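hey can u check if this looks right to u? its 402 residues, i copy pasted from the old doc so theres a chance i mangled smth
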Amino acid sequence: MFVRYRHVLSVPGALRFSASALVGRLPMGMVTIGIVLLVTGVGRSYGLAGAMSAAYLIATAALAIPQARLVDRLGQGPVLTVAAAAFAVAMCVFVVIVQSDGPEWSAFAAVMVAGCAFPQVGSCVRSRWSHVLRQRVDIDTAYALESAIDEVVFVSGPILVTVLATAWDPVAGLATAVVAGTGGTLFFAAQRSTAPVPTPRVPGIRPARLPLAVMGPVCVVGLALGTLFGAAEVSTVAFASTRGLEGYAGLLLALWAAGSLIAGVVTGAVAWQIGPAARLRRGSLAMFVAMVPLSVIDSMWVMGAWLFVAGFAIAPTLIATLSLVEQAVPRSRLTEGMAVVETALVAGVAPGAALAGWIIDGHGASTAYLVSLVAGLVAAVTAFACRDEVATFSGRSPRARH
C-alpha cells in the first residue's frame, strides 16, 4: 500500500522539503487557539480573545493570494524568508503587548501584521511537488501525502498548544507555534534545488491567465466546503455540550479527522483511472450524503461512529480539488492557484460557524447541522460544472507548459 509513497519520497530532496513543510505548517493548527489561550490567560475576556483570533484569520486570508503571486514571480526562497521573519517579529510584538497590558489597538495591529505575513507553505509545497514530479499518478500521491499531513497538523496542533499553555505558561503554546513555523519555513525556503523556477513579469507581455472555467466552480466548491466544515465543527461542540459531555467534543472532531486521514492515505496509494474532476464530483456528493443524518442523530456513540465514516469523504475531495487546479493552472501561476483554493476554504469557515452558532442559540445543535447539509448540497451541485483538462504533456495539461 505504501509503495507509491516510498516512490515519491525517494525523489532527491522530497523527504526533506516535505518534512520541513510539515513543521512550517504547525502554526495553522496552533496560532488561533494559542491567541485565545494567551489573551484569556492574562485575564482578558473571551470576547476580546475571539476578536483577535478572528482578526488574525481575516488578515491571513486577505494576503494569502498576493503572497502566492509574489512566490510565483520572485521564487519561494526570498518571499518565504521575508514572510517568516515578519511573521515571527509581529507575533513576538503581539505577545509583549498582551503580556504588558498594552493598548488593544496595538495588539490588534500586531496580530493582523502576523496574519498578513503568515508564510503560505501549504501552497508552496504542493507547487514544489508538481515541479519535481512528472507523472499525474505521482502528483496525486504527493497531494494525498500533504493532505494527510494537514490532518495531522490540524488534529495535533490544538492539542499541543493547549497542553503547553495550560500546563506550563500561556505564552508557551504560541511561542512554540512561532518557533516551529519560522524554523520550518526557513529550512523549507533554503532548499533551492527543488524549488520551482520563478516567472518574473516581463513588461509588455500579458501574464498567463487563471482558467476561469475551472477556478470559478472550484472556488464555489471550496467556499461551500469551508462553510460545511465551520458549521459542523460548531454544531458538534454544541451537540456534546448540550448533553453535558463537553469533554467529548474534541473526541468527536478527532474521529471525523481520523476518517479523513485514513481515506487520504488510501487515496494516495491508488493509481486512479478517472480524472480529478470526476473524483471531485463523487467526493462532493459523498460529503453531502454524509451530512444528511446528522440532524437526527441523538446518541453520542452513533454520532462518533457516523462522523468517523463521514470523514472518509473529506481528504479525497480536497485532494481531487487541488489536483484539478494543478492540472489546469499555468505553471507560472500554480502557487497562486493553490492559494486561491485554500483561501476559498478558509473564507467559508467563519460564516458557516457564525450561522450555525446563531441557529444553535435559537433552535439547538441538531438543527444547526442543516447548515452543513445545505452547504454540502451547494458543493455537490457546483462540482458537476467541473471538467478535466485534456492531459497530453507527461500527464500534465497543455497549459502546464506556459
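The chain has 16 helices and no strands.
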